[in-house]
Design brief:
The structure holds 2 protein chains of 2 kinds. Chain A is built from 13 helices and 14 strands. Chain A is α/β, with parallel strands linked by helices. The longest helix of chain A has 20 residues. The N and C termini of chain A lie far apart (71 Å). In chain A, 54% of the residues are buried. Classes of the chains: A alpha/beta, B mainly alpha.
Chain lengths: 375, 293
């Protein structure tokens, strides 16, 4: 079959237009849990990514180019996260990526991005190893905007002053076991840990351990579980009529546990978290208001992380004046972005230092007691 | 503390309540296996579906808990009949893998359909019994968990009566013994399959409506239930409903004491340790008959 040369040329021209349009978009990829038990957090991350890119595009994009946010499912598992990243990097040709929720998955992403030579902004995971291995620690492509568990453990340990006996309830993951280990290393000498219980992430039945803790009567329960397990734990805790405060890192600010928190049965419980959606300052209000308008619920910590991460990246690309990965990486190293909770600047290990929040329950309401610099 | 009778009694009470919940969740699976010889991998997703239907009926239709629960169980029976018609009936004459793959596909579809419909945000069902706690000599008994126990007793007795005294129950038992003979005496295996599917789904629906208000709802919640139910069914003797009931109870008690006297990690391994031990020592399970060669 003969194809007229004009038609062929026209076809080529149209195809090249498509290529040009694609080349003009700036793409940011995210590997996160769309399915699996943490799909709830992945959903918040997706919503935040869409909100951040929409806002930036409404103001004319970055370098006059449109920002595109792409999310691939990792189910929060290392192997799936790597597969998701490969797809984003090789098929979608993303210019930069954001890290996963689960530290294990994020750690698996690090060498992939190093090999592809694209920046990775870790916006949710809190395992200290990510920082140890980044920047001057080896992987110059990885940056983290949120405080890590060792920084948080230092603040928690300080807050535990006056507590004599502590029972630990933690999830049986890198996060739970790691955070408890870091806490133990920093614990004041007079705080005694009387029991340690580790649960699978999707645990629903806390009755046996609560029965034991109810009898052993510690001063406080050190809690290192995520939102959904916390809801089940707290429901069963109230049924037992227990009164010792939950301390450490219970997700007290999460919308998931809001109904049990408002019962007033957790007064005196406190937590150290990198974010709380109802904390009011002009920057945070500007983030939460459109988010709530779209999704009828406040942004989770995971959403906050992604929103900041995309803005930090957009800022770096703007200052670099190009999406050339090396230039963006160098711009990130010099970042001084005005974040929601304070300026985001990266140290030699590419770790940002920002404020941590001390949240306490007072008469059924979550109160921001203090903003503590994470160090 | 370890010899404190109130502490031990509390662990026993927790164990019975949790164990009867396991039993209630597993008897539908045991029934379908016992009658049809088919493994329903969508069992956990049927439980999840029941919980979300209950949420829809209470929170969105505004029905009271009891009415919503009845509606849910009725809808689940219908869903079970449809599942049997679509997945099991066409595969009656094929090898058992067909149904395993078919139900696995249904499980994936249900999980994602619920995620797309309700979203991934965890939901919570309010039940009038939630705040009810009885103090019996220092041992606390919780209202919703007592309801689970009561529902189990009623469901078990009802199932036993149905299988023994009703025409469809007799047909089900006949089919579990010899399908070819059923055809000869005029029992339609397709009809019995649909009834069994409906009954199995109604039972897991009952489990869903009774247990769901205790915990949060999310599209993956069935995965946990299906693994525990499989352990219970294997320990009890594949397809034996009474065995599954006893196995659930034993497992609940064992977990409660392991978690209370030992640690949470110890508790976690109990179900599968018992299951493996059972497979090694008595492969036919607690109540199963050994297979004659």
């Amino acid at each position: 079959m003969r194809v007229p040369i004009q038609r062929l040329l026209a076809g080529l021209f149209i195809a090249s237009l498509g290529l040009q349009a694609a080349a003009q978009e700036i793409k940011i990829g995210l590997a996160g849990p769309v399915t699996g038990p943490l799909a709830f957090l992945g959903q918040h991350m997706k919503w935040a990514g869409e909100l951040a890119t929409d806002e930036i595009n409404q103001k004319g994009g970055v370098l006059g180019r449109k920002l595109v946010f792409l999310m691939q499912d990792s189910a929060c598992r290392p192997a799936d996260a790597v597969a998701a990243a490969e797809r984003l990097l090789n098929q979608d040709k993303v210019d930069a990526m954001l890290g996963d929720v689960c530290s294990g998955a994020t750690i698996a992403l690090m060498p992939v991005l190093e090999k592809a030579q694209r920046p990775l902004i870790v916006t949710v995971s809190t395992h200290p190893d990510i920082t140890l291995r980044s920047g001057s620690g080896g992987n110059k492509w990885v940056f983290r905007t949120v405080p890590h568990d060792a920084m948080i453990a230092a603040v928690v340990a300080k807050q535990l002053k006056g507590v004599k006996t502590l029972a630990i309830v933690a999830e049986d993951t890198d996060y739970g076991r790691g955070a408890v280990k870091l806490l133990k290393e920093r614990l004041p000498a007079d705080v005694k840990i009387i029991s340690e219980d580790y649960f699978k992430q999707t645990e629903t039945d806390f009755l046996p351990v609560l029965t034991r803790i109810r009898a052993s009567k510690p001063d406080a329960i050190g809690t290192y579980v995520l939102d959904q397990a916390a809801l089940n734990l707290m429901k069963q805790y109230t049924q037992f009529g227990m009164t010792m405060p939950l301390v450490g890192r219970p997700p007290l600010g999460s919308g998931v546990v809001a109904p049990v928190v408002s019962s007033g049965k957790f007064d005196g419980s406190w937590t150290v978290y990198p974010y709380y959606d109802k904390y009011s300052n002009p920057q945070n209000d500007a983030f939460t208001k459109p988010f709530i308008e779209r999704h009828k619920q406040g942004p989770h910590y995971a959403a906050y992380g992604v929103y900041e991460g995309i803005n930090v990246l957009a800022d770096a690309i703007r200052r670099a004046g190009t999406t050339d990965p090396n230039a963006v990486r160098e711009a990130l190293e010099k970042a001084n972005y005005a974040g929601i909770l304070g300026p985001i600047r990266f140290d030699a290990n590419h770790q940002a230092t920002s404020n941590l929040m001390l949240l306490q329950i007072d008469r059924g309401a979550v109160v921001v007691k203090d903003l503590i610099p994470a160090q | 503390m370890l010899t404190d009778p109130v502490f031990l009694a509390q662990l026993a009470a927790n164990g019975v309540a949790v164990g009867l919940g396991y039993a209630l969740a597993a008897i539908g699976l045991a029934l379908v296996f016992g009658i049809l010889g088919q493994v329903n991998f969508a069992h956990g997703e049927l439980y999840m579906l029941a919980a979300f239907v209950l949420f829809w009926a209470t929170a969105q239709l505004g029905l009271p808990y009891a009415a919503a629960a009845l509606l849910t169980v009725a809808l689940m029976a219908g869903a079970g009949a449809v599942l049997a018609q679509v997945v099991i009936v066409p595969n009656l004459d094929r090898s058992f893998e067909s149904v395993i793959l078919g139900t696995l596909a249904v499980a994936v579809i249900l999980q994602n359909a619920v995620r797309l419909t309700f979203g991934a945000t965890p939901l919570d069902i309010a039940s009038p019994l939630e705040g009810v706690t009885f103090d019996v000599g220092g041992v606390l008994l919780f209202g919703q968990r007592l309801l689970v126990c009561a529902v189990f007793v009623v469901a078990y007795a009802g199932l036993a009566a149905l299988l023994r005294f009703s025409a469809i129950g007799r047909a089900m038992r006949a089919m579990s013994q010899n399908r070819d003979a059923c055809v000869m005496v005029g029992i339609d295996p397709r009809s019995v399959t649909r009834w069994t599917g409906a009954l199995g789904a109604a039972l897991v629906g009952l489990a869903g409506v009774a247990i769901a208000p205790l915990f949060d709802l999310y599209p993956n919640m069935g995965t946990e239930v299906v693994f525990k139910s499989f352990a219970v069914v294997i320990i009890g003797g594949m397809g034996n409903v009474a065995g599954a009931a006893l196995a659930g109870l034993v497992l609940g008690l064992a977990e409660s004491f392991a978690g209370g006297l030992g640690s949470a990690v110890l508790r976690e391994g109990i179900a599968f340790t018992v299951m493996i031990a059972m497979l090694l020592a008595r492969p036919q399970g607690l109540f199963g008959r050994s297979v004659r060669v």
